[in-house]
Design goal:
With about 290 residues, this protein is of the alpha/beta class. Helix 10 packs parallel to helix 11. The longest helix is centred in the N-terminal third of the chain and has 24 residues.
């Protein structure tokens, strides 16, 4: 008899705890148009470069809906940018309870941002094996469909990287066609014309941005069984490229760049210059831009 009463007591405690946790982290009591409006306002502020206003919107949103995983993820990322470590830790602590998978992804975002910011432009190719792909980020074409000078510089760096790593698959990424030719097609033609076997080159001809370059190239590399990548682009673009590939799920083991603007890009990026890395990372993580 006493054992049964004890069991009933434990069940009651467990039920109360479940109700309490549901109130804190379960289906939000205040989710709806108002919280969506705050989320959209926050994302607009981030896009426009006002992270303080965006974080203020998120604080109000999370106060109304403590279980909004996307808002918690954004708050953690942008608090990291602001150097507000207590706010970042608070958001991450809540997120680990609400959505452990998104928390793990947010950790990956922060790691990728750190890796991108720490990257130094380097014109020397990395020595890597066949499990490491080479991702060449596209740039605009001339009216006749041939590479613009900056893209030709990137391709020269990619050619050197391909020679240094003869068994690595190559992904050329970019859409933005000119004269009926996409960036990726023009890049493939350039490399094949200089002796790189066409069988090594995988054409990614959908991407219209750095975020899409990273996401679509990561799909191809995952399909090839690659476990990492060397990013190839211009010095003023390499940090965003590295961060986005990391966030897309491809560890970057090398960053090869062209020579143009190399010296000016060697110093660590300013806080303002880091902003685009953070913004790109949230887009690559595919957090909703509006809802």
């Amino acid at each position: 008899m006493h054992n049964r009463r004890g069991l009933q007591y434990l069940v009651a405690i467990a039920a109360a705890a479940s109700i309490s946790l549901t109130g804190l982290f379960g289906a939000p009591a205040h989710a709806g148009p108002e919280t969506d409006a705050l989320y959209n306002s926050a994302q607009r502020h981030f896009t426009e470069g006002d992270s303080d206003a965006g974080r203020a919107d998120l604080r109000e949103l999370i106060g109304r809906d403590p279980a909004d995983a996307e808002a918690l993820s954004l708050q953690a990322i942008w608090s990291h940018y602001a150097g507000d470590i207590p706010a970042m830790n608070d958001a991450m602590g809540r997120l680990r309870v609400v959505d452990p998978e998104m928390a793990a992804g947010t950790d990956r975002v922060l790691h990728g941002i750190g890796a991108g910011i720490a990257t130094l432009p380097n014109p020397l190719p990395a020595l890597v094996g066949p499990n490491t792909g080479i991702v060449v980020f596209g740039f605009g074409l001339l009216p006749d469909g041939t590479p613009r000078p900056e893209l030709a510089d990137r391709l020269q760096a990619a050619w050197l990287q391909a020679i240094a790593s003869p068994f690595s698959p190559i992904v050329v990424s970019g859409y933005n066609p000119s004269n009926g030719i996409t960036e990726a097609e023009a890049m493939r033609n350039w490399l094949v014309g200089r002796g790189i076997p066409a069988s090594r080159i995988h054409v990614e001809d959908r991407a219209g941005s750095t975020v899409q370059n990273a996401l679509f190239s990561a799909e191809i590399l995952h399909g090839l069984g690659a476990t990492g990548a060397v990013a190839v682009t211009s010095p003023n673009h390499i940090r965003r490229a590295v961060a986005d590939l990391y966030v897309a799920g491809i560890p970057v083991v090398g960053a090869t760049t062209s020579l143009n603007q190399l010296v000016s890009q060697l110093p660590p990026p300013s806080k303002q210059a880091q902003y685009s890395i953070y913004l790109d990372a949230t887009r690559t993580f595919q957090l909703s831009t509006s809802r």
